[in-house]
């Protein structure tokens, strides 16, 4: 499971949850992006492991492409 915590425009903490990395990838490729690209991600966990990402939501996809997520399966 991929859990993304971010701050919306009002600086309210929100969460997005995807059952798998593939589900997240599909949402990105089909332009089904819930948060605005500039919203700040504060935490990303994959299968309970903190991936250490903090930054704009639009950079998260490219960050995850560079990670070896198989070690957390």
Task: List the topology elements.
Elements lengths: L1 E6 L5 E6 L2 H9 L10 E7 L2 E2 L4 E2 H9 L8
Antiparallel strand pairs: 1-2, 1-3, 3-4, 3-5
Explain what you see:
- By secondary structure, the chain is an alpha+beta fold.
- Helices cover 25% and strands 32% of the residues.
- It contains 2 helices and 5 strands, in the order E-E-H-E-E-E-H.
- The protein has helices at 21-29, 57-65; strands spanning 2-7, 13-18, 40-46, 49-50, 55-56.
- Strands 1, 2, 3, 4 and 5 form a 5-stranded antiparallel beta sheet that branches.
- A hairpin with a 2-residue loop joins strand 3 (40-46) and strand 4 (49-50).
- The longest helix is centred in the middle third of the chain and has 9 residues, at 21-29.
Q: Compute the number of strand runs.
A: 5
Basic shape: globular
Q: Note the run of SSEs as H and E.
A: EEHEEEH
Strand content: 25-35%
Q: What count of helical segments does DSSP give?
A: 2
Distance between the termini: 10 Å
Question: pLDDT below 50 for ≥5 consecutive residues: which ranges?
Answer: none
Query: Which structural class matches the secondary elements?
Result: alpha+beta
Rounded average pLDDT: 93
For the biggest sheet, the summary is: 5 strands, antiparallel
Rg estimate, integer Å? 11 Å
Proportion of helical residues: 10-25%
How would you concisely characterize the structure shown here?
This protein has 73 residues and is α+β, with helices and mostly antiparallel strands.
Tags for this model:
73 residues; 32% strand; single chain; 5-stranded antiparallel β-sheet; 25% helix; globular; alpha+beta
């Amino acid at each position: 499971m991929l859990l993304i915590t971010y701050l919306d425009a009002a600086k309210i903490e929100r969460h997005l949850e995807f059952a798998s990395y593939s589900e997240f990838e599909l949402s990105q490729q089909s332009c089904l992006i819930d948060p605005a690209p500039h919203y700040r991600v504060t935490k990303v966990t994959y299968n309970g492991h903190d991936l250490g990402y903090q930054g704009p939501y639009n950079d998260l996809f490219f960050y995850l492409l560079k990670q070896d997520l198989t070690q957390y399966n």
